[in-house]
Amino acid sequence: MTVLDRIRTTDTATNLRAGVLVLAAVAIAGTAVELATERHWNGVVQLVPWFALAALAASWVLTAWRPRPASLSAARVLAALVLLASLYGIWEHLESNLNAGWLDAVYSAGWESLSAGTRWWYAITKTVGAAPPLAPGILAQAALLVMLSTWRHPAMTDLDRCPQTGDGVRPPG
Protein backbone atom coordinates (compact mmCIF):
# COMPACT_ATOMS: atom_id res chain seq x y z
CA MET A 1 0.00 0.00 0.00
CA THR A 2 1.45 3.36 -1.00
CA VAL A 3 1.23 6.50 1.08
CA LEU A 4 -1.36 7.92 -1.32
CA ASP A 5 -3.46 4.75 -1.04
CA ARG A 6 -3.34 5.00 2.71
CA ILE A 7 -4.35 8.67 2.62
CA ARG A 8 -7.28 7.87 0.34
CA THR A 9 -8.54 5.06 2.59
CA THR A 10 -8.06 6.87 5.90
CA ASP A 11 -10.63 9.25 7.34
CA THR A 12 -9.98 12.98 7.32
CA ALA A 13 -9.54 13.30 11.09
CA THR A 14 -6.78 10.66 11.09
CA ASN A 15 -5.00 12.39 8.21
CA LEU A 16 -5.25 15.76 9.96
CA ARG A 17 -4.00 14.22 13.21
CA ALA A 18 -1.00 12.80 11.35
CA GLY A 19 -0.33 16.19 9.77
CA VAL A 20 -0.47 17.92 13.15
CA LEU A 21 1.98 15.37 14.54
CA VAL A 22 4.33 15.98 11.60
CA LEU A 23 4.24 19.72 12.34
CA ALA A 24 4.98 18.99 16.01
CA ALA A 25 7.91 16.74 15.04
CA VAL A 26 9.35 19.46 12.79
CA ALA A 27 9.03 21.98 15.64
CA ILE A 28 10.71 19.58 18.09
CA ALA A 29 13.61 18.85 15.73
CA GLY A 30 13.98 22.50 14.75
CA THR A 31 14.03 23.60 18.37
CA ALA A 32 16.73 21.04 19.19
CA VAL A 33 18.87 22.35 16.32
CA GLU A 34 18.27 25.96 17.38
CA LEU A 35 19.16 25.27 21.01
CA ALA A 36 22.31 23.43 19.94
CA THR A 37 23.47 26.16 17.55
CA GLU A 38 22.91 28.74 20.30
CA ARG A 39 24.84 26.51 22.75
CA HIS A 40 21.93 26.87 25.14
CA TRP A 41 23.35 24.82 28.00
CA ASN A 42 25.24 27.24 30.24
CA GLY A 43 23.75 26.82 33.69
CA VAL A 44 20.72 25.08 35.11
CA VAL A 45 18.19 27.59 33.78
CA GLN A 46 19.43 27.07 30.22
CA LEU A 47 18.91 23.32 30.60
CA VAL A 48 15.17 23.74 31.23
CA PRO A 49 14.29 23.85 27.51
CA TRP A 50 16.33 20.69 26.91
CA PHE A 51 14.33 18.82 29.55
CA ALA A 52 11.13 20.32 28.14
CA LEU A 53 12.19 19.16 24.69
CA ALA A 54 12.81 15.63 25.98
CA ALA A 55 9.38 15.62 27.65
CA LEU A 56 7.81 16.91 24.46
CA ALA A 57 9.51 14.22 22.39
CA ALA A 58 8.23 11.60 24.84
CA SER A 59 4.76 13.11 24.59
CA TRP A 60 4.97 12.92 20.80
CA VAL A 61 6.03 9.25 20.90
CA LEU A 62 3.22 8.40 23.33
CA THR A 63 0.76 9.99 20.92
CA ALA A 64 2.15 8.77 17.61
CA TRP A 65 3.20 5.21 18.42
CA ARG A 66 0.46 2.76 19.46
CA PRO A 67 -1.72 5.26 21.30
CA ARG A 68 -3.74 3.94 24.22
CA PRO A 69 -5.90 5.85 26.70
CA ALA A 70 -3.17 5.80 29.36
CA SER A 71 -0.42 6.87 26.96
CA LEU A 72 -2.56 9.66 25.52
CA SER A 73 -3.36 10.91 29.02
CA ALA A 74 0.34 10.86 29.89
CA ALA A 75 1.11 12.69 26.64
CA ARG A 76 -1.39 15.40 27.57
CA VAL A 77 0.18 15.84 31.01
CA LEU A 78 3.70 16.04 29.56
CA ALA A 79 2.59 18.53 26.92
CA ALA A 80 0.92 20.67 29.59
CA LEU A 81 4.16 20.68 31.60
CA VAL A 82 6.07 21.74 28.48
CA LEU A 83 3.56 24.53 27.97
CA LEU A 84 4.31 25.78 31.49
CA ALA A 85 8.06 25.49 30.87
CA SER A 86 7.62 27.54 27.71
CA LEU A 87 5.85 30.30 29.63
CA TYR A 88 8.69 30.21 32.17
CA GLY A 89 11.20 30.56 29.30
CA ILE A 90 9.37 33.55 27.86
CA TRP A 91 9.42 35.18 31.29
CA GLU A 92 13.14 34.43 31.76
CA HIS A 93 13.98 35.94 28.38
CA LEU A 94 11.90 39.06 29.05
CA GLU A 95 13.40 39.50 32.50
CA SER A 96 16.91 39.08 31.10
CA ASN A 97 16.29 41.76 28.48
CA LEU A 98 14.68 44.06 31.03
CA ASN A 99 17.67 43.70 33.36
CA ALA A 100 20.05 44.41 30.47
CA GLY A 101 18.38 47.73 29.67
CA TRP A 102 20.58 49.82 31.93
CA LEU A 103 23.66 48.31 30.23
CA ASP A 104 22.53 49.23 26.70
CA ALA A 105 24.76 51.78 24.94
CA VAL A 106 21.80 53.77 23.63
CA TYR A 107 19.39 53.62 26.58
CA SER A 108 21.66 53.29 29.65
CA ALA A 109 21.77 57.01 30.46
CA GLY A 110 18.01 57.43 30.55
CA TRP A 111 16.88 53.89 31.37
CA GLU A 112 15.56 54.72 34.83
CA SER A 113 13.64 57.73 33.51
CA LEU A 114 11.74 55.65 30.93
CA SER A 115 8.23 54.56 31.86
CA ALA A 116 7.72 50.95 32.91
CA GLY A 117 5.64 50.36 29.78
CA THR A 118 8.43 51.65 27.53
CA ARG A 119 11.06 49.53 29.30
CA TRP A 120 8.86 46.42 28.94
CA TRP A 121 8.23 47.21 25.28
CA TYR A 122 11.98 47.51 24.64
CA ALA A 123 12.52 44.17 26.42
CA ILE A 124 9.71 42.45 24.48
CA THR A 125 10.93 43.76 21.11
CA LYS A 126 14.57 42.93 21.98
CA THR A 127 15.52 46.57 21.58
CA VAL A 128 17.54 45.97 24.74
CA GLY A 129 19.04 42.64 25.74
CA ALA A 130 20.09 39.66 23.68
CA ALA A 131 17.50 37.04 24.65
CA PRO A 132 14.81 36.38 22.03
CA PRO A 133 11.63 36.71 24.12
CA LEU A 134 9.35 34.71 21.85
CA ALA A 135 11.78 31.87 21.07
CA PRO A 136 10.51 29.69 23.95
CA GLY A 137 7.07 30.00 22.40
CA ILE A 138 7.96 27.32 19.85
CA LEU A 139 7.87 24.80 22.71
CA ALA A 140 4.36 25.99 23.56
CA GLN A 141 3.33 25.70 19.93
CA ALA A 142 4.66 22.15 19.64
CA ALA A 143 3.05 21.19 22.97
CA LEU A 144 -0.29 22.55 21.78
CA LEU A 145 0.06 20.61 18.52
CA VAL A 146 0.64 17.37 20.44
CA MET A 147 -2.32 18.16 22.70
CA LEU A 148 -4.46 18.91 19.65
CA SER A 149 -3.55 15.56 18.13
CA THR A 150 -4.96 13.80 21.21
CA TRP A 151 -8.29 15.63 21.06
CA ARG A 152 -11.12 13.19 20.29
CA HIS A 153 -8.53 10.56 19.45
CA PRO A 154 -10.11 7.21 18.49
CA ALA A 155 -8.13 5.48 21.24
CA MET A 156 -9.88 7.70 23.79
CA THR A 157 -13.44 7.23 22.52
CA ASP A 158 -14.53 5.07 25.43
CA LEU A 159 -13.25 7.61 27.94
CA ASP A 160 -14.37 10.76 26.12
CA ARG A 161 -17.90 9.64 25.28
CA CYS A 162 -20.86 10.16 27.54
CA PRO A 163 -22.52 6.84 28.45
CA GLN A 164 -26.04 8.36 28.26
CA THR A 165 -25.82 10.24 24.95
CA GLY A 166 -22.95 8.47 23.17
CA ASP A 167 -21.33 11.75 22.18
CA GLY A 168 -18.56 13.85 23.69
CA VAL A 169 -20.94 16.09 25.65
CA ARG A 170 -22.40 15.08 28.97
CA PRO A 171 -26.01 16.16 29.62
CA PRO A 172 -26.58 18.77 32.35
CA GLY A 173 -27.39 17.52 35.81
From TrEMBL:
It comes from the Bacteria. Keywords: Membrane, Transmembrane, Transmembrane helix. The chain crosses the membrane at residues 16-37, 43-62, 74-91, 130-151. This is Uncharacterized protein.
